[in-house]
Design goal:
Rossmann fold, Leucine-rich repeat, LRR (right-handed beta-alpha superhelix), 34 helices, 44% helix, disordered N terminus
């Protein structure tokens, strides 16, 4: 395996012992290219949302999963293997680890044996080569600079067989030069002089060493610089699916029970659990939780709940562990934080010893042997003969350190920072701002203050005031993206008073048509629970999994009106909704669940909560939820339940049938039933249920004011049965819908008798899209003239009525209005 030889130091990640045979956990990699990353979202958060969706849809079965050893294997249906492979993934997801695994498998002789030589280059090392006094060089010289044992004659022989060569370029996002695939001249001879970035594009384009294989790794945000037409296979690292997360925890702790215990804690915290798709986050969490779970229960301190708390405890562990190594930890962290902020503001991930490190006065600190342990746990150092580079172990750690610096040593005018945050629209400060919010807490000040001394409370006050104003504007302006963002910030503060002040009274939260992950829902649930009471939460047309509903549960009970129409809900969500409804503190008075796949089983679960004495629900909408008569007994028991306050029930567009409605009527006839409105449009009903409905209308204790039966085949016989109840002195029905019910003039005499009855309360009658004809309309006209008739709205469009009869009805309408009666006919 003579083609791989590292020139790096012992800190070089490519030469460190990784323990692939014992510690490596295989990542999920799928063959799937999505150009969907929006610069206004932090890519880790964006991937977390996408990851949650893919887990829910079982994308690991729907997409082609690729194992590390399969990257360059021919796919089914393809005649040749891929030559150019791009592996994408967010920061810390395991791209470099995958490269290490490829190198390990190749050098150990287990995989990739068709390659005689593997040449590994890091883009951050190539940055300098394009800037040196020698701006151009041949490929042969580039290789020899990294693999000095390959003399020129030997290398020329190697390059004559490009089909046996693999070039790996790691970290495209760290490259400071643009790859230009539109230039007129490329390099075709490995001994011709060209700029390094041209050599790279020439290799990718297949012009230089045609037939060689190329592996490129990159964060998603850097993919725009690639010509994807040149790429034969695109693979995306998704990180860990749920079962792999548990495996990682067990391996880290080395104790199955302790690992499982720590994982169960994280699993219950949606904020932390959603981050676990990323191996780097798993490592940070395990590092923090190890100290907690490996001590006795009496000695255990607090466990992290927010992202800020996690990173504070991570930093606290490092500082405590290396306390004796440095007298000026605070001073070094200030310098480090200011450099980190420079990186966040300017999208710099790699810091060079000759540039950034020198600018921020860190060169002498990093060269001190006494600080090596302290800094090695925050920064990763990589050296070559030409230069030394530093990167934070994780992008989010860089953002956290940047935020810390503003509390350790804030600039004279913090307003400048706030102006920068306000003016930035590309999302680069999103996580940084979340940390700014999370750090502005007394608990955090006390935790870090023990080690670092007092933090600046004035900064915290200014930041919290700005966040409050930002939240007020975002929530009032109904900007969904900003509203979600500020909710994240508010959550990190864990400040109930601030949240109440920011959200105000009588607030409506509108997140219609918004992609919400379990992480978003956990944040919303927590923020809403601090509000006291929310007038309306609208999540309609947002795809919500049972996990999302579970994470929303703490907040839902504080809402008066919850809209969950067309959210892709299943019966699995109903147990959580039932729990919310039966909660002692639940304020929910109205729930809309239209157009979801709840089925009878889901509604039965829902009814468990509706029966509870704590339930305050008055209006329930279950239109188009795939229900049948199988759920009607459960619903009927609710209607007759002693504690049920239900006054409105909508069941439109469900296949309840006559048997289902007859079961409902048993509850409706109960003397303690409070239902005032029942909607049964398009429920496959016939005249077979009308006698039962009639008995409900005539029941002594009936509270029914509105009955909608549109789009059912009731026909004249069914309406005639209904009219028996409508004429009863106990009937209180004011609104009746009989749109498109297969009616003819045969039912009009019965309807006319109802309208002219002195006991009738009907004020609104819908008869459109039937076949009443002129004869039926004349019968109804007579009742309209009756002094007992209370009708003020009659709809009769599309009833086969002649022009002349329609004119007569309109004249009647004018006459009645002249006599002081407000009526609308054909409305």
């Amino acid at each position: 395996m003579e083609g791989f030889e590292s020139t790096g130091s012992l800190e070089d990640p490519y030469t460190r012992a990784v323990g692939f045979e014992t510690r490596y956990t295989e990542l999920i990699v799928i063959s799937h290219y999505r150009r969907t990353f929006n610069e206004t979202h932090h890519e880790l958060e964006k991937t977390g949302r996408t990851h949650a969706e893919l887990v829910e849809e079982r994308a690991k079965e729907k997409c082609e999963r690729i194992w590390t050893e399969q990257l360059f294997r021919r796919s089914p249906g393809h005649k040749t293997p891929p030559y150019v492979v791009v592996v994408s993934g967010v920061a810390g997801i395991g791209k470099t680890t995958m490269v290490q695994k490829v190198m390990f498998d190749w050098t150990s002789g287990t995989q990739y044996q068709r390659f005689s030589f593997v040449f590994l280059f890091r883009f951050k090392d190539l940055n300098f080569l394009d800037n040196e006094k020698e701006p151009q060089m041949p490929l042969t010289r580039l290789i020899v600079r990294h693999y000095k044992y390959l003399n020129n004659p030997k290398l020329i022989e190697i390059l004559k067989k490009p089909e046996h060569l693999l070039f790996i370029f790691d970290g495209l996002d760290e490259y400071r030069h643009k790859l230009d695939f539109t230039r007129e001249q490329f390099c075709s001879d490995p001994e011709d002089f060209f700029p390094v970035h041209v050599l790279v594009t020439s290799l990718i384009s297949g012009i230089l060493l045609k037939g060689c294989s190329i592996l490129i790794t990159s964060r998603p945000t850097a993919l725009e610089s690639l010509d994807m037409k040149k790429v034969d296979r695109f693979a995306e690292i998704l990180g860990f699916f749920p079962e792999q997360r548990l495996v990682y925890f067990k391996k880290f702790f080395g104790d199955t029970d302790l690992g499982k215990q720590a994982f169960q804690y994280v699993e219950e915290n949606a904020i932390l659990y959603t981050m676990c798709f990323n191996p780097s986050y798993c490592w940070i969490m395990c590092s923090v939780l190890q100290k907690h779970f490996m001590t006795s229960e009496e000695e255990r301190g607090v466990t992290p709940r927010t992202v800020t708390e996690l990173f504070v405890m991570f930093l606290e562990n490092i500082l405590t562990k290396h306390r004796r190594e440095a007298d000026d930890q605070r001073g070094i962290l200030v310098k480090l934080g200011k450099m980190a902020y420079h990186g966040v503001a300017n999208r710099v991930l790699v810091f060079y010893d000759k540039f950034e490190m020198s600018t921020f006065g860190l060169q002498s600190d990093l060269s001190s042997p006494f600080l090596s342990g302290f800094m090695k746990e925050i920064l990763q150092r990589e050296s070559t003969l030409e230069h030394t580079t530093y990167t934070f172990f994780h992008l989010t750690l860089q953002e956290f350190m940047a935020a810390c610096s503003f509390y350790l040593d804030p600039p004279m005018d913090i307003e400048v920072l706030i102006e920068n945050l306000d003016s930035c629209k590309d999302g680069r400060f999103e996580i940084f701002t979340r940390f700014l919010a999370g750090l502005a807490r007394p608990f955090i000040f006390e935790t870090l203050g023990v080690i670092l001394g007092d933090l600046k409370r004035k900064t915290a006050k200014q930041i919290l005031e700005w966040i409050k104003q930002k939240a007020e504007r975002a929530l009032q302006n109904r900007n969904k993206t900003e509203a979600l963002q500020v909710c994240q910030w508010l959550y990190e503060t864990q400040n109930k008073n601030l949240i109440r002040d920011a959200t105000g009274k009588d607030l409506n939260m509108d997140f219609r048509n918004t992609t919400l992950s379990p992480l978003d829902c956990a944040v919303l649930g927590s923020v809403i629970s601090c509000c006291g009471e929310l007038q309306e939460l609208n999540l309609s047309y947002s795809n919500l999994s049972p996990e999302c509903i579970r994470r929303l549960e703490p907040g839902l009970g504080h809402c008066t009106h919850v809209k969950l129409d067309s959210c892709g809900l299943t019966s699995g969500c109903c147990e959580f909704l039932s729990s919310v409804l039966s909660s002692e503190h639940s304020q929910i008075a109205e729930v809309q669940l239209d157009n979801n796949n709840l089925w009878d089983s889901g509604v039965s679960l829902l009814c468990n909560g509706l029966r509870n004495k704590n339930c305050k629900l008055k209006k329930l909408r279950l239109n188009s939820c795939h229900l049948t008569s199988g759920c009607c007994a459960a619903l009927s028991s609710i209607l007759s339940a002693e504690h049920s306050p239900l006054t409105v029930l909508e069941l439109n567009k469900n296949n309840l049938g006559d048997s289902g409605v007859r079961q409902l009527c048993e509850g409706l006839r109960s003397p303690i039933c409070k239902l005032e409105k029942l909607s049964l449009d398009s429920c496959s009903l016939t005249s077979g249920c009308c006698e039962s409905l009639s008995s409900v209308l005539s029941a002594e204790h009936s509270q029914m004011r509105e009955l909608q039966l549109n789009n059912n085949k009731l026909e004249d016989s069914g309406v005639s049965l209904l009219c028996d109840g409508l004429r009863n002195k106990n009937c209180k029905l004011a609104k009746l819908g009989l749109f498109s019910c297969g009616l003819t003039s045969g039912c009009c005499e019965a309807l006319s008798s109802v309208l002219s009855s002195k006991h009738s309360c009907l004020t609104d009658l819908e008869l459109g899209h039937n076949n009443l004809k002129d004869s039926g309309v004349r019968l109804l006209s007579e009742s309209l003239r009756n002094t007992n008739c209370k009708l003020n709205k009659l709809r009769m469009k599309n009833n086969g009525i002649s022009v002349e009869e329609e004119r007569n009805m309109k004249l009647l309408e004018k006459d009645l209005k002249r006599s002081g009666w407000q009526i609308e006919i054909f409305a």
